[in-house]
């Protein structure tokens, strides 16, 4: 593959071009309730060529690599349409590297029947309970070989397995239907999905308990969020605004997002770190062949860094961070997060709860979204806190805040950082889902707006 | 494709090959200028077999993997569900308008011109705004071939136009998005720009609101938030699993009597229009809600078989997955009231146009709780200004049971064709 890609690139008449080619084999098992919904293995091969003109990009994706010369001439033609430039790329020393991240138990050596049996066993747990109506269990192991080459002489070949399992238990009492979810995932081997009986039991138990939870009334509350939710908070409430492609061509936003601006107290540190082995957002090189690195987005409460592609880094005069990622060969790389988390602090969870007279303890997550100013992050369930104690269970509420003010309302950071990855992932533009991990310790936020009835 | 079918049938009783080919071209503008021209040319093949009465499936993108495809589908069938259906025979297939030669012949230069015009008009009137524009054309060809003799191919085109206008001031971000999508070529420029400019004007003034219950208007663009619960509720698979809150309510009144909705894959040039569904069943109209009464659930072949009923031609899929019940174009009947008349009727209330946080609540049960990304306050029949930092919460089924009025002008929002709705009340937390 290397000599093929390099020889094609050597004939290109363009300032800069790159080729990415992927071979993806995925095996999946999907149960809904007692029935196996689907099972099997599929294979996908495809690639793309991206060409930089003086003032813009062109991108061409394909399945048939033998037609590459034709696609290439189209791509070069299209790269010349944009007229208002110029576009520059931050320099990255060329490198040649072959990375094989096949660690742990190779899923190819586990036969389909064994995968079926494992899922069937977990599914049985998800369905145990007289008020459990159904379940949804999805297993996937995805083997990827990705080849990357550019006209500057960089060639990177990466191979890895991404193994993921999502488990949802759905309970019903009359017209009341409630679900609870547990998931795992990451770059690694089959061991990621083994021995998860306890997680399956937890999903089942929580779905049943949610039947008895009461809807919460909306308003402003002091909210303590658990590590699952504080990770989504980090991702939505700050992570996205750190993506430099939102900033680099917007003078006003750049004024607002000056390095050194204070967003939170000294206890607050938010980090993006691709190089965490086993996590969902793990990688060594991004989709521009740039080595991944750890970036402090917020250090001691102040804005200290952002996530870059080579283009945004050049425009802003900063170092590339290796955050240009694409969900597949069908898409060009854009600036994305990897594993994003709030660093642990010094408070015990119990102490944080004990100090709250009236508030909410929010747990688990169903998702989050931001428009770069406001954000939402949705818990699965919660408990009312009265005089420092957890009282009744509540559901059907959503948390919201303002990126520029809410971080300063964090008044306690726990000492119990956990990183989560699982099915699903991050969406940006039309690229979804991208594997990422999010995490944090328990954190406490004052005066948060809660939507409910 | 015939070769794949033959290979599969040497080992399986029945088989179906689903093949998709597409090419799409997108021009993107960022920060007011043309930034990229992207193209994709792709294809994929899915094989569904029935062996020993059980379903197996696999998919590939390249012809070199055909052997793998057949072997994987057969291997999967060992664990597969018992098939409760037979693949459909060739039958009379309706002519559905979903391909327009004008989309095919619209060149990149023309798409760029349209994008430039959008940017020019918006930034001329509001220089502090930055525009992102994405214009996409997609041409696709789908073929279904099965062991019952069906061999049908259809072509489809899509022309999609997306505009996002964004302005930033410390403490006051405003982003407005508008989209136009059709199988037919359409000059979206002016209609989308007019909507954006009108909303920018309305959003200039910021107003506040006390927490409480208020009457609410959802624009067509915001209606998918309300209708997404119903979309799931009528999904035959969720009905079969008994987790649809509508499971036992067929032929019962479940919504206000003003509400009538059909699912219609034959709607001319609709986003989700096609002559057949993903398993070769001729497209048709299905009544979903008639004057508030639940008339039908939507099925694919397998789910219909399990429920001992007939498919409604709602087996939707892409090449790389098995069909599953889904809505096609959801067409909501218009009412008699104009948007202005709805606004005039409100003493104090809210207009919802864009939200963040949709789909993160218990959607199945109808719950929603969202931040008003773009929402307005109405006082004494007039739009007073933009609401921010406000959550709107409620239950979609409750809303649809408490309809005050339905607008007379429907528009597509994705594949939902709906007028604006005026509901009795929604919970606002500010």
Strand percentage of chain B, roughly?
A: 35-45%
The biggest beta sheet of chain A, please? 10 strands, mixed
Beta strand count of chain A: 27
Tally of helical segments of chain B: 10
How would you state the average pLDDT of chain A, rounded?
95
Greatest interface and its residue counts?
A-B, 79 and 78 residues
Rounded Rg of chain B: 24 Å
Gyration radius of chain A (Cα, Å) is 23 Å
Question: Care to give the gist of this entry?
Answer:
The complex is a heterodimer of chains A (453) and B (430). Chain A is α+β, with helices and mostly antiparallel strands and 453 residues long.
Comma- or semicolon-separated keywords:
heterodimer; A: 10-stranded mixed sheet; 9 helices; globular; B: 430 residues; alpha+beta; 6-stranded mixed sheet; 10 helices; 22 strands
Fold and architecture overview:
Helix content of chain A is 19%, strand content 41%. Chain A has nine helices and 27 strands. Chain A has helices spanning 2-10, 68-78, 112-126, 197-210, 227-239, 251-256, 310-316, 349-354, 403-406, and strands spanning 16-32, 35-52, 57-62, 96-101, 132-150, 155-173, 176-187, 214-215, 219-225, 270-272, 295-299, 302-303, 324-325, 334-335, 339-342, 358-363, 367-370, 374-378, 381-386, 389-395, 398-402, 410-413, 418-420, 426-428, 431-434, 437-440, 443-451. In chain A, strands 8, 9, 16, 17, 18, 19, 20, 21, 22 and 27 form a ten-stranded mixed beta sheet that branches. The model of chain A has no long low-confidence stretch (mean pLDDT 95). Chain B has 430 residues and is of the alpha+beta class. Helix content of chain B is 22%, strand content 40%. Chain B contains ten helices and 22 strands. Chain B has helices at 2-9, 66-77, 101-105, 108-125, 189-203, 223-233, 236-240, 301-306, 339-345, 396-401, and strands at residues 14-30, 33-51, 54-60, 130-146, 151-169, 172-182, 206-207, 212-218, 261-264, 285-290, 293-294, 315-316, 324-325, 330-332, 348-356, 367-379, 382-387, 391-395, 403-406, 411-413, 416-418, 421-429. A six-stranded antiparallel beta sheet of chain B has the order 3-2-1-4-5-6. In chain B, strands 11-10-9-14-21-20 form a six-stranded mixed beta sheet, with no helix packed on it. In chain B, helix 4 (108-125) packs parallel to helix 5. Chain B is globular. Classes of the chains: A alpha+beta (453), B alpha+beta (430). The interface between A and B is large, with 79 and 78 residues. Strand 3 (57-62) of chain A pairs parallel with strand 2 (33-51) of chain B.
């Amino acid at each position: 593959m290397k000599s093929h890609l390099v020889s094609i690139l050597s004939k290109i008449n363009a300032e800069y071009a790159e080729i990415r080619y992927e071979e993806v084999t995925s095996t999946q098992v999907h149960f809904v309730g007692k029935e196996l919904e689907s099972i099997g293995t599929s294979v996908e091969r495809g690639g793309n060529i991206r060409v930089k003109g003086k003032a813009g990009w062109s991108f061409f994706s394909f399945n048939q690599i033998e037609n590459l010369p034709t696609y290439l001439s189209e791509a070069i033609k299209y790269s010349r349409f944009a007229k208002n430039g110029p576009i520059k790329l931050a320099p990255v020393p060329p490198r040649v590297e072959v990375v094989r991240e096949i660690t742990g138990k190779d899923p190819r050596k586990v036969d389909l029947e064994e995968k079926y049996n494992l899922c069937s066993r977990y599914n049985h747990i998800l369905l145990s309970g007289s008020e459990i109506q159904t379940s949804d269990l999805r297993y996937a192991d995805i083997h990827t070989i990705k080849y990357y080459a550019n006209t500057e002489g960089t060639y990177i070949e990466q191979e890895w397995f991404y193994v993921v399992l999502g488990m949802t238990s759905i309970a019903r009492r009359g017209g009341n239907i409630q679900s609870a979810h547990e998931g795992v995932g990451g770059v690694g081997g089959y061991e990621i999905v083994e021995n998860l009986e306890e997680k399956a039991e937890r999903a089942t138990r929580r779905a049943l308990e949610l039947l008895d939870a009461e809807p919460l009334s909306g308003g402003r509350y002091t909210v303590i969020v658990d590590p699952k939710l504080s990770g989504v908070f980090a991702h939505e409430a700050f992570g996205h605004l750190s993506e430099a492609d939102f900033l680099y061509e917007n003078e006003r936003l750049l004024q607002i997002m000056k390095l050194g601006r204070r967003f939170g107290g000294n206890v607050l540190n938010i980090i993006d770190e691709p190089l965490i082995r086993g996590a969902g957002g793990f990688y060594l090189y991004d989709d521009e062949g740039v080595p991944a690195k750890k970036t402090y987005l917020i250090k001691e409460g102040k804005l200290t860094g952002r996530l870059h592609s080579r283009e945004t880094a050049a425009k802003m005069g900063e170092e590339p961070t290796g955050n240009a990622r694409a969900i597949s060969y069908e898409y060009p790389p854009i600036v994305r997060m990897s594993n994003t988390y709030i660093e642990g602090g010094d408070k015990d969870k119990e102490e944080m709860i004990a100090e709250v007279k009236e508030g909410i303890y929010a747990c688990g997550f169903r998702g989050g979204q931001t428009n770069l100013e406001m954000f939402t992050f949705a818990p699965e369930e919660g408990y009312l806190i009265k005089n420092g104690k957890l009282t009744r269970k509540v559901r059907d509420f959503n948390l919201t805040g303002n990126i520029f003010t809410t971080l300063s309302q964090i008044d306690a950071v726990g000492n119990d950082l956990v990183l989560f990855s699982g099915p699903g992932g991050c969406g940006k533009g039309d690229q979804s889902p991208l594997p990422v991990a999010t995490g944090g310790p328990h954190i406490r936020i004052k005066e948060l707006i809660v939507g409910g009835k | 494709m015939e070769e794949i079918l033959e290979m599969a049938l040497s080992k399986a009783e029945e088989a179906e090959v689903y093949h998709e080919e597409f090419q799409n071209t997108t021009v993107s503008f960022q920060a007011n200028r043309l930034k990229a021209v992207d193209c994709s040319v792709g294809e994929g093949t899915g094989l569904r077999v029935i062996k020993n009465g059980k379903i197996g499936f696999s998919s590939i993108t390249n012809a070199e993997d055909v052997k793998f495809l057949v072997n994987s589908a057969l291997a999967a069938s060992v664990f597969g569900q018992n098939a409760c259906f037979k693949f459909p025979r060739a039958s009379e297939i309706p002519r559905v308008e979903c391909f327009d030669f004008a989309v095919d012949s619209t060149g990149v230069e023309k798409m760029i011109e349209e994008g430039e015009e959008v940017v020019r008009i918006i930034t001329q009137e509001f220089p502090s705004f930055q525009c992102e524009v994405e214009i996409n054309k997609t041409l696709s060809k789908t073929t279904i071939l099965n062991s019952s003799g069906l061999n049908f191919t259809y072509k489809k085109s899509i022309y999609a136009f997306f505009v996002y206008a964004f302005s930033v001031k410390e403490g006051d971000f405003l982003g407005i998005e508008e989209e136009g999508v059709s199988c037919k070529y359409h000059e979206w420029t002016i209609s989308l720009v007019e909507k954006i400019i009108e909303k920018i004007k309305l959003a200039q003034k910021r107003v506040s609101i006390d927490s409480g219950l208020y009457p609410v208007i959802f624009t067509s663009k915001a209606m998918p938030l309300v209708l997404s619960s119903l979309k799931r509720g009528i999904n035959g698979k969720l009905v079969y699993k008994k987790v649809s809150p509508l499971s036992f309510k067929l032929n019962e009144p479940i919504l206000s009597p003003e509400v009538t909705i059909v699912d219609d894959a034959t709607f001319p040039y609709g986003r989700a229009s096609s002559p057949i569904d993903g398993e070769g069943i001729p497209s048709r109209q299905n009544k979903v809600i008639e004057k508030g009464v639940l008339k039908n659930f939507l099925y694919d072949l397998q789910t219909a078989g399990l429920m001992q009923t007939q498919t409604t031609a709602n087996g939707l899929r892409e090449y790389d997955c098995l069909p599953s019940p889904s809505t096609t174009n959801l067409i909501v009947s218009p009412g008699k009231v104009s948007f202005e008349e709805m606004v005039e009727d409100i003493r104090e209330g809210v207009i919802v146009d864009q939200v963040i946080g949709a789909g993160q609540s218990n959607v199945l049960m109808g719950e929603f709780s969202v931040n008003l990304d773009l929402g307005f306050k109405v006082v004494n029949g007039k739009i007073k200004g933009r609401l921010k930092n406000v959550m709107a919460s409620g239950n979609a089924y409750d809303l649809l049971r408490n309809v005050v009025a339905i607008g007379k002008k429907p528009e597509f929002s994705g594949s939902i064709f709906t007028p604006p709705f005026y509901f009795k009340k929604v919970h606002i937390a500010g």
